[in-house]
Amino acid sequence: MSFNFFDIFWVFLALSSLQPIWQRRQIEYRRVQTLRAFEQQRNGRVILLIHRQESLSLLGIPLSRYITIEDSEQILRAIRLTPPDVPIDLILHTPGGLVLATEQIARALIRHPSKVTVFVPHYAMSGGTMLALAADEIIMDANAVLGPVDPQLGNFPAASILKVVEDKPIAEVDDQTLIMADLSRKAIAQVQRFVRTLLKDNIPQQKIAEENIEPIVEALTTGRVTHDYPITVEEATELGLPITVGLPRSIYNLMELYPQPQGGRPSVQYIPMPYGDRRPILPTPKGRPLEEPDQRT
């Protein structure tokens, strides 16, 4: 049997079309294996909620993902399938999302009788922070961040809408702004009530000291900072949240199996190997020595 150029071309084309499918199956298999190993290590149920910015295959339009009703349906099902005596580990990497979906997941987490642990390798903002508040323990990378949970009405923070009404004479405020202010008061009250419920959770044991609950509610829900303000490990610990610093290596391995889709040239590149003890010696600073940062725990 002889092959001509066109036969080879069609074989190459067929193999090229099958390669993405094979790669996708391989990475899915590695995800399941890594999840299974982590569950055996932790002796519990592991749930991932990872949101990356996706790209449409044809148009290349960036499409940001967030917590949706579909997410809540899947997570609620996973929680229902978990026996009461089995702990839950939730790995979070999300900018937030729908309030309804977030509250459903958070309520299911605080109702679970066994310990709930949230892992934050990079960030869990807004609704992601609310899910973290439902946990008995929040384990974070030293550089990971949480965020405020103050309500947003459209493109505007509820707290800022209220400030407009407070600062301007009532006669100079239009009806639409007054309606928005009324909704803002209700939204802030609702979020504060729900966050207070999460912080008072005492199953399997009380996780937040009683004297810290109201200061945490005040700090996270009243719009004292912008909605994208990063709450560091140090600040979260100072507030009284149950923070533990230091993620197991398996969490980072899992995150590597959920890469950000690349379009064109990568914006970050490095040689992926640890330096260990062979780190380059940093130059001695000239002039006055730099002050060491405040090491808060």
TrEMBL record:
<dbReference type="InterPro" id="IPR002825">
    <property type="entry name" value="Pept_S49_ser-pept_pro"/>
</dbReference>
<feature type="compositionally biased region" description="Basic and acidic residues">
    <location>
        <begin position="288"/>
        <end position="297"/>
    </location>
</feature>
<dbReference type="GO" id="GO:0016020">
    <property type="term" value="C:membrane"/>
</dbReference>
<feature type="region of interest" description="Disordered">
    <location>
        <begin position="263"/>
        <end position="297"/>
    </location>
</feature>
<protein>
    <recommendedName>
        <fullName>ClpP class periplasmic serine protease</fullName>
    </recommendedName>
</protein>
<dbReference type="InterPro" id="IPR029045">
    <property type="entry name" value="ClpP/crotonase-like_dom_sf"/>
</dbReference>
<dbReference type="Pfam" id="PF01972">
    <property type="entry name" value="SDH_protease"/>
</dbReference>
